[in-house]
């Protein structure tokens, strides 16, 4: 089966630091794939390379067999790859529902000052997505008054408004209290299942990885040092030393 996304031999360096040093990976339909690894090992960089935010010095990224290596982020998003960020990218002083409307309007690409932002169809979809991630009761709150876990979920809902096939999440549980983490992940998993979205997520919380990922890629110094089912990966002594000891 052809992977949804396939990266081959990606290289990029920043000021001599090899942030990607020959990375190759594939993501298949229906997977929930985790990336773990020490700080600064290049986890965010690989998400940036796969979504057009960073261009590799060499190597390629294919989506459904199409070369997307040098496309702009917006073009890649239009092809069905959405992104949720390490720090939520929201209009913080706007209401939750307005953040959704803006994302839905951006997806349509039709919004101008002459057209209303809010249409019936957009409002219905905004409310459906907020319901899906468990934020229905927060819709009229100003975004920066939400607890961090809900801000993360809103960032995810904003990404889902782009109707992706593939969602790349950078540390969905970072900054979120331990008590909020599993409910956040349950809401995320429910939304992915309902909308049949494949996902890749970078994560520092090993309990979250063990419980939710069906495959794990372990990063070290710009490349993948181990890969497998969480049960296998967490038995690997090298992984325990380099990642779990540090996390
Ligand atoms: N746009 C950039 N400009 C300059 N250096 C960068 C840039 N992006 C990443 N780097 C550097 O590349 C290396 C890998 O960074 P990256 O953010 O990918 O790591 P990470 O694994 O996501 O770390 P963390 O766990 O702290 O989020 C680091 O040395 C970082 O400083
Ligand atoms: Mg990072």
Give the oligomeric state of the chains in this entry, treating copies of one chain as homo and distinct chains as hetero. single chain
Kindly estimate the percentage of residues that lie in beta strands according to DSSP: 15-25%
What is CATH's topology name of the largest domain? Rossmann fold
- Average predicted local confidence, pLDDT: 92
Outline type: globular
SSE pattern, N- to C-terminal:
EEEHEEHEHHHEHEHEEHH
**Secondary-structure class:** alpha/beta
The CATH class label of the largest domain is Alpha Beta
How are the SSEs ordered, and which strands pair?
Elements: E1 5-14, E2 17-27, E3 32-36, H1 43-50, E4 58-63, E5 66-67, H2 73-78, E6 81-84, H3 96-108, H4 120-132, H5 148-160, E7 166-170, H6 178-195, E8 198-202, H7 206-212, E9 215-220, E10 223-228, H8 230-233, H9 237-244
Parallel strand pairs: 3-8, 3-9, 6-7, 7-8
Antiparallel strand pairs: 1-2, 1-4, 4-5, 9-10
What does this 3D model show about the protein?
The protein is α/β, with parallel strands linked by helices and 247 residues long. It has two domains: 163 residues, Rossmann fold; 74 residues, no CATH class. Helices cover 36% and strands 24% of the residues. The chain is built from nine helices and ten strands. Strands 6-7-8-3-9-10 form a six-stranded mixed sheet, sandwiched between helices. Strands 2-1-4-5 form a four-stranded antiparallel sheet, with helices on one face. The protein is globular, with a radius of gyration of 18 Å. The mean pLDDT is 92.
